[in-house]
Amino acid sequence: ITVLVISVSSQVFAQSTPEPPNVLLVTAHPDDDALFSITVYKIAKLMGGKVDLALLTNGEGGYKYSTFGPQFYGLDLTKEEVGRQYLPAIRKKELMAGGDIVGIRNYFFLEQVDNEYTQDAKWILNDIWDVERAQSDLKRVIKNGDYDYIFTLLPTTTTHGHHQASAILAIR
Questions:
Q1: Please, are residues 103 and 43 in contact by the beta-carbon 8 Å criterion?
Q2: Strand stretches in 18-157, DSSP E
Q3: Rounded CA gap, 29 and 26, in Å?
Q4: Residue pair 33/104 in contact by the 8 Å Cβ criterion
Q5: What is the mean pLDDT of residues 8-29?
Q6: Strand-strand pairing, 149-151 and 104-112
Q7: How far, in Å, CA of 40 to CA of 82, rounded?
Q8: CB atoms < 10 A from the CB of 134, how many?
Q9: What pLDDT is recorded for position 105?
Q10: Is the pLDDT of residue 17 over 80?
């Protein structure tokens, strides 16, 4: 579905948008933007549009998957206490390096907790994230950005709760 949406969305922009679009991506984790990379590249680099990214979590929960940490950073990022301490800064730096390639213009880091994998968005929204602050920050970003489009993942119940919660906040 994501590939279809990306393909169709880039075709729609190319055919029906006289001015280059101004787009906001709303994602949960520092690597989620990769799902939109071709569309972002086409909008920013080929069409002259603007793409910004609002990132909901700090990315610390990725420690479980950081097996290359010792090779690249000299840290055992798979240890929870090490990963949670160092991963937010590392993942932001990596996100922005990749964003430079595809053309992301601005980043808005909303710094919500990346606690653990769940499919329960209600738990994330009611007990884990500071929803009032996140919603306020996201509302400010949207209001000040004058966006034509907002891209996010579909908030289906079978996806990561952080992805669902990010989409729900963007829709609100």
A1: yes
A2: 22-27, 50-57, 104-112, 149-151
A3: 10
A4: yes
A5: 77
A6: unpaired
A7: 32
A8: 20
A9: 98
A10: no
